Amino acid sequence: MAVRFGILVFPGSNCDHDAYHAVKHVAGQEARFIWHKETKLGDVDVVIVPGGFSYGDYLRPGAIARFSPIMQDVIRFAREGGPVIGICNGFQVLCESGLLPGVLLRNASLRFICKYVHVRVEQTDTPFTNALQPGQVLRIPIAHGEGNYFAPKEVLERLEANGQVVFRYCEPDGRITEAANPNGSAHNIAGIVNEQRNVLGMMPHPERCVEALLGSEDGLGIFRSLIRHVAGVSV
Ligand SMILES: NC(=O)CC[C@H](N)C(=O)O
């Protein structure tokens, strides 16, 4: 049975079609778009909050999108344990919604950065990483102006103690260095889960690296993990 992915669409989303292509055409699952003005998600197994510039990033990225009608039902779905993945602008929306702690500040360079980076898989006991290996290094693109993850010291300590840091920017060989951190994120954080582990936010774009033709297939492991989590099958 195919896993049903629901992909939110805000005015200004621009990675919604890439996410659709990844889960539908590459991973062979069901996918449908959900306009932000809808109030119900309907029958979906996984929610994807895609990247882009919702509301033109006015105020702060995600600060307006979080008031979209659909977000109430996303919060309900998450509270009931449904898997939600926010990618890039989606991560920003999830932080603004209070589903994830912390905030994404402007990159330390104050520049928009679009390039391939490496991230290390820190946790594999999540719906998003169960098909990956601990310590595995993924080659994956980033494209953001505000990916500099920040949270107060106590929050960072709690994230680390609970194993909520799922991806960390690293060197190609997996070493965590300052030079490998593209945007100034605290603790080289590229992705985190909530305490219940069913909501993930990540700045890199797994949907942009699911085919060899695109230069990397490393993003596929995240969608394969979700399929395994929901359907119990390895694809
Ligand atoms: N690719 C994206 O989702 C970009 C996210 C956001 N608009 C930023 O620049 O930080």
TrEMBL record:
One of its GO terms (molecular function) is phosphoribosylformylglycinamidine synthase activity. Keywords: ATP-binding, Cytoplasm, Glutamine amidotransferase, Hydrolase, Ligase, Nucleotide-binding, Purine biosynthesis. One of its GO terms (cellular component) is cytoplasm. The active site is at C88, H205, E207. The keyword Hydrolase applies. Its EC number is 6.3.5.3, 3.5.1.2. PROSITE patterns: GATASE_TYPE_1. It catalyses: L-glutamine + H2O = L-glutamate + NH4(+); N(2)-formyl-N(1)-(5-phospho-beta-D-ribosyl)glycinamide + L-glutamine + ATP + H2O = 2-formamido-N(1)-(5-O-phospho-beta-D-ribosyl)acetamidine + L-glutamate + ADP + phosphate + H(+). InterPro entries: Class_I_gatase-like, PRibForGlyAmidine_synth_PurQ. SUPFAM superfamilies: Class I glutamine amidotransferase-like. Pfam families: GATase_5. The keyword Cell wall biogenesis/degradation does not apply. It is found in: Cytoplasm. Pathway: Purine metabolism; IMP biosynthesis via de novo pathway; 5-amino-1-(5-phospho-D-ribosyl)imidazole from N(2)-formyl-N(1)-(5-phospho-D-ribosyl)glycinamide: step 1/2. Its main location: cytoplasm. One of its GO terms (biological process) is 'de novo' IMP biosynthetic process. Part of the phosphoribosylformylglycinamidine synthase complex involved in the purines biosynthetic pathway. Catalyzes the ATP-dependent conversion of formylglycinamide ribonucleotide (FGAR) and glutamine to yield formylglycinamidine ribonucleotide (FGAM) and glutamate. The FGAM synthase complex is composed of three subunits. PurQ produces an ammonia molecule by converting glutamine to glutamate. PurL transfers the ammonia molecule to FGAR to form FGAM in an ATP-dependent manner. Part of the FGAM synthase complex composed of 1 PurL, 1 PurQ and 2 PurS subunits. This is Phosphoribosylformylglycinamidine synthase subunit PurQ. It comes from Rhodothermus marinus (strain ATCC 43812 / DSM 4252 / R-10). The lineage of its organism: Bacteria, Pseudomonadati, Rhodothermota, Rhodothermia, Rhodothermales. The gene is purQ.
